Amino acid sequence: MPIIVNLDVMLARRKMSLSTLAAAVDITLANLSILKSGKAKAVRFSTLEAICRALQCQPGDLLEYAPDSAPDSETEPG
Description:
Layout: E1 3-5, H1 7-14, H2 18-25, H3 29-37, H4 45-55, H5 59-62, E2 63-65, H6 72-75
Antiparallel strand pairs: 1-2
């Protein structure tokens, strides 16, 4: 997936546990774990805002775009 979630990095920098963040953001620990693992398909702006507020960071500190390698059809000589 080309979007990488760096929530674990920010949690470590802020010395905050996932359960503490879940309580501060009012989101279930299970849903926050899905986001942290990168398995989430979407995130609401209101949730992202609450996480940024709790961690005192910017959305770009949490999310990173890393494009996949080029598709096979573009890498084959033609």
